[in-house]
Amino acid sequence: MEECGGGAGSGAHLAVIAGIFATSGSLLGKLAGGADASSLPSLFLKGVLLIFMLVCNTVGCTFFVKALHTSGSSLPITVASAATNYICSALVGSIVFDESTSLTWWCGASLVLLGLMLICNVPAEKSASVIEEKLKHQ
Question: Which positions, given as ranges, span the membrane (predicted)?
Answer without folding.
Answer: 12-31, 43-65, 77-97, 103-124
